[in-house]
Amino acid sequence: MAEMADLHEEAQRANYLAPSTIDEALRMLAEHGEGAKPIAGGQSMLILLRWGLAAPTYLIGLKGIPELQRIEASSDGGLKIGAMVTQYRIETSPAVQRAFPALAEAAGAVASPNVRRQATIGGNLAHADPAADPPAALIALNAEVELAGPNGRRRIPVRELFTGFLETAIEPNELLVSVHIPPAQPSSGAAYLKHRARAVDYALVGAGFGLTLAADGETVEAVHIGLAGVADTLLWAQSAEQALIGKPVNDETLRAAAKAASEECNPPSDTEASEWYRREMVGVFVRRASEIALERARQSLGRTGEGR
Amino acid sequence: MTATTVVGTSPRRLDLDDKITGKARYASDIQLPGMLYGKIVRSDRPHARILKIDVSAAEELPGVEAVVYGDIGGYFGEAVRDQRLFAVEKVRFIGEPIAAIAADTAATAELAASLINVEYDDLPAVFHPLDALAPDAPLIHDDLGAFAQPEGLVRYGNVCGEITLAYGDIDSAFAAADKIVEGVYSAHSAHQAPMEPRAAVAEVDGNGALTIRASTQAPFAVRHQLHEALGLSYGDLRVVAETVGGGFGSKTEAHVENYAALLARETGRPVKVANTREEDLSFGSPRHPMLIQIKTALDANGNIAARQAKATMDAGAYSGGSPLLAAVAAMLIPGPYRIPNLKVDVLAVHTNNVNFSAYRGPTGPQAVFAVESHTDEIAKQLGLDPVTFRMRNIFTDGDTGHSGQPLPKVALRETIAKAAEAIDLGTENPPSRPGWRRGKGIACGWWPTSAGASGCSILFNEDGTISVQSGAAEIGTGAVMAAIPQIVAEELGVRYEDIRMVWGDTASTPMDAGALGSRTLFNMGRAAQRAAQAAKAELIRRAADLLEAAEADLDIRDGLIRVKGVPDQELTIAELTKTQMWTSEPIQAGGSFVVDPTDYDPSRWTGSLLQAFNAASFHCHAAEVEVDPDTGKVEVIDYVAVQDAGFAVFPQGVEGQMEGGAVQGIGYSLFEELIFEDGRVANPNLALYKLPTALDVPKVRTVIVESASEHGPYGAKGVGEPPVVFPSGAIANAVARAIGVPVHTTPISAERVLRSLREGESATIPNIDLFAIE
Questions:
Q1: Average confidence score pLDDT of chain A
Q2: Do B290 and B367 contact (CB within 8 A), yes or no?
Q3: How big is the A-B interface in CB pairs under 8 Å?
Q4: What is the pLDDT of residue A29?
Q5: Is the sign of the CA dihedral B661, B663, B664, B666 positive or negative?
Q6: What is the pLDDT of residues B239-270, one digit of tens each?
Q7: What proportion of chain B, given as a percentage, has pLDDT over 90?
């Protein structure tokens, strides 16, 4: 109807470019500079166009680049996910579900089933909505993104990707090409939990929690916590991590971590919820996610033990 | 009565294929040669004097064909004529039209709108009814008495309508009470959210006559407002309802139609004005925010001895439907209970918010949330279960309603019993997780079937197909595109498939008061029944000659006119109409209907434009919820709607209304809230305005009860509105049961529930005393 027609009109104002390789896409970016924007699934870009928040002369469509479409095992035993892989493919991938259930949970929590069939992991990360789900899970999984630029490739941890509201460390002449998740340690577990008003909403609070236990099965050897919806960008919850690292995992330390997370976040008050409520929910969901992660870490430890 | 064969079944709707294939044409789909795009320029101030309007830059923009503003046209309004096309001296809400632009493209019109420069002198503004009632509050209108208005309205200061419904002696009853229970409640605003925003296309002919094709629920009411606003003859205004993509009350008055018509007159070219989603959400006519206080005296037996209630409705800047709807609130706030002594005051109050007006079941969800929460509180204090207290105090057959109307048949007992049984009230189910809370609740009540005139014509074609002309609007219920042809088929003895509907056109279909107030089938159904009976008599009169039989011996069934008791002596309608049509007088017939007014006691009312509930229907909804105690999030686990439809002419349509209405009511109760911040809608899009999705609601179980009305076709009553009225009460009571704390403010958001769990009942009780207002 009328709105769709307007949208169509706006999309038509930009020239749509369809590179078939990453190098070609990079050349287009270099050539058109600020006037060009990459477009993945369009989950976010179409809204920016609709609201007039972005008005690129060129849209560089990435769907014709085969390398960006793959989910593949890395040589180190981890997983490499191409930027154009949809949330639906991640949510339903047996490889992801088996090794990294936290990411499957986060991908499955994005928007609605229909949006998830279009929306991509790379677009989600590059758009950097502060309430996006997958980034918080990827922080918990200690994942990295791979960026391609005119001078080659570089990798940065997901927790360092987000620099501000809808802002990232990606340079204008770079493309986010893949996500690398390191192999799961034998005694690790991670989970992502989301709190929202309706099934299709952005996160009021999203909590990604990843944990590795030392050989004693009690001491926290490593912990990674990512939070969605509670600051002007996706939050790497360092104070909460500090409350646990090197300590025995128990009710007291998990409670301290949840409290630290709820104190270090900086949530908004808006039409959806108050700052007070969001802070309370950070505590609740960090705690709940930590318990699932711990359970998974212990199961993993148990399995490894049996294998010995 | 002989057994019916077509009514009471669920045939394929006549508009089904069009809608499911996407072929149906909506007003915003219309493209006409030379068509321009209209844009309404609106105030961004809640209350201000207009010092200067400079349109020169907009007029000079290439592609702009007209800019109109200022002192144009007359006053119009649903009850009180207090609105004009454009603000002249003052603006009174954010969004009040200042000017309208017609341009060659929508983008040009939008750009031109941004070039109009208005200089304002801001005035003090009020956004809350209690602030507007304060003695020193700024007046929204200098003199309410200056507007043309129906007799009997009580209006003063910022009070747009004050209604009192009272009888008996409440003071003595409260003095003698064994127990007194009191509660105060706050219920919020919500947007109708039809899938299709408002849209209209107007075109003008050589004589200056206008045709307006619109997404409207009430073409004749819109024509009337166009007549008042533009000062044109009714005969020069043709309003045609296109396929309507939902209305829910938002399309009962002229909105975009006015501006499309004005701009078409100004330019001589067709003009389309179509709201964006943001405009529809921000500048519509949403549900009234209400504050409701109820106090009940109970006698030694635990029965209601007296009730006092007072409520405010935020009417917004102009009257709209508020003075009329305040009376609906006064009828609902007491609840469907026998009350020996009663006093209810309802104040509709002007503020500098947008007009609040008709939304499916207007004032109903707010009133039912309050009175049914209050009812559960009484039962709890008496140590009774919710059903027992209600069964002792509800209206029963032969009772008198609050305004003195006779209630010969009351189906409340049956609806409550069925709802309680279906949800298994009284049995507590274990929660799905340890520590989570489960609870069940019910809410019951009554609802009117609005009256209003209807007319219907029937024309016969050469092949026996039948064109039925009806001014009613099909807004999705199936009343026009299934139930009316069912009634014609039933009465006339023809096949449903042979009927074609022509509807919703002020120039070519007989009058109907509009698809509002659950009224279409009740009123148009009787008009169609009468038209079909007249048509049948005419067919038989003509056939009697051809068949050489007495009229009394003829009957029509399945499209065949037969001589009773004589096989083979028959004639198809096609044979009859074909021979008659070109050689004799064409066969046509008409019928019309308006219901007799319901009796009431005039001494009980002050200031009311509505005095009794016509063909009242009775209802009970039941909900089971589960609450996460750490987050306050409420999930509706099970939902049952029991509705007295009088007689379900098109049962699938009735079930559809019940399911859709219940979901809309669940949305109102838990998620949806139109949030105003200093007169501005803070969540004007469907990401922030939270309609429930299919993933957020349970399957709604429906139970239809049939307690026939005296005047409706086959006993039918209005069906459309009531399903949205009762969920607020059922869910509030289920949540109160689950968490052990009543919730006094809607929506019942997770945050409110969490605060209730932490701080108790006081967390949601509005800090007001309406009884203290003089």
A1: 93
A2: yes
A3: 49
A4: 96
A5: positive
A6: 999 999 999 999 999 999 999 999 999 999 99
A7: 97
**pLDDT confidence band for A304 (50 / 70 / 90):** low
Once rounded to an integer, what is the mean pLDDT over residues B403-424?
98
Q: Residue B565: what pLDDT?
A: 86
Question: What per-residue confidence (pLDDT) applies to A7?
Answer: 45
d(CA B205, CA B507): 14
Residue with tokens 């509002």: B516
Q: Which residues pair with B591 in a beta bridge?
A: B456
Chain B residues contacting A via beta carbons under 8 Å: 26, 28-29, 106, 196-197, 199, 274, 276-277, 630-631, 633, 671, 675, 682-683, 687-688, 690, 692-693, 695-696, 749-751, 754
Chain B residues whose CB is inside 8 A of the A202 CB are: 687
Structural tokens at position A120: 């991509």
Confidence class for position B155, pLDDT limits 50, 70, 90: very high
Residue A301's pLDDT is what?
85
Joined together, the tokens standing for residue B396 give 């029963």
Plot region of B250 (φ>0 → left; ψ -120 to 50 → alpha; else → beta): alpha
Instruction: State whether ipTM is beyond 0.90.
Output: yes
Give the residue from B410, B646, B409, B619 showing the smallest Cα distance to B526.
B646
Q: Extract the tokens encoding A206.
A: 């999203």
Contacts of A195 in chain B (CB under 8 A): 631, 633
Cβ(B189)–Cβ(B673) below 8 Å: yes
pLDDT tens for A65-95 read: 999 999 999 988 899 999 999 999 999 999 9
Sequence-distant (≥ 6) Cβ neighbours of residue A17 within 8 angstroms: A28, A36, A58, A59, A60, A61
Cα A116 to Cα A89, A112, A113, B266, B491, distances in angstroms: 9, 6, 5, 48, 52
Whether A1 sits inside 8 A of B751 (CB atoms) is: no
Give the helix/strand (H/E) hosting B54: strand B48-54
CB A225 within 8 A of CB A257: yes
Shortest alpha-carbon distance between residue B313 and chain A (Å): 22
- CB atoms A272 and B29 under 8 Å: no
Tell me, what's the pLDDT at A2? 43
Which of A48, A116, A272, A275 should we substitute to test contact with B (largest number of B Cβ atoms within 10 Å)?
A272
Omega of the bond leading into B194 within 30 degrees of 0 (cis):
no
CB contact under 8 A, A280 and B754: yes
A10 has pLDDT over 90: no
> What SS3 class is residue B416?
helix
* Model pTM score: 0.96
Handedness of CA A201, A203, A205, A211 (dihedral sign): positive
* Kind plus residue range of the DSSP H or E element containing A154: strand A152-157
Give, for A49, the enclosing helix (H) or strand (E): helix A45-50
Q: Which residue of B has its CA nearest to A276?
A: B751
Give me the mean pLDDT over the B166-187 stretch.
98
pLDDT (tens digit, 9 = 90+) per residue, B114-124?
999 999 999 99
Q: Across the interface, which of A1, A3, A199 has its CB nearest the CB of B26?
A: A1
Interface touch B28/A2, C-beta < 8 Å:
yes
Pairing assessment for the beta strands B117-122 and B237-241 based on DSSP bridges: unpaired
B241 touches B214 (CB < 8 A): yes
Contact B751 A273 (CB under 8 A): yes
In this predicted structure, what is the pLDDT of residue B568?
Answer: 85
Q: How many CA atoms lie within 13 A of A166 on its CB side?
A: 5
Considering only CB atoms, B693 lies closest to which of A1, A198, A271, namely A198
- Are A197 and B631 in contact (CB < 8 Å)? no
Range A214-227 average pLDDT: 96
Residues of B in contact with A271 (CB under 8 A): 675, 682-683, 688
Q: State how far the Cα of A154 lies from the Cα of A139, in Å rounded to an integer.
A: 18
Residue type at B421 in one-letter notation: E
| pLDDT exceeds cutoff 60 at B753 | yes
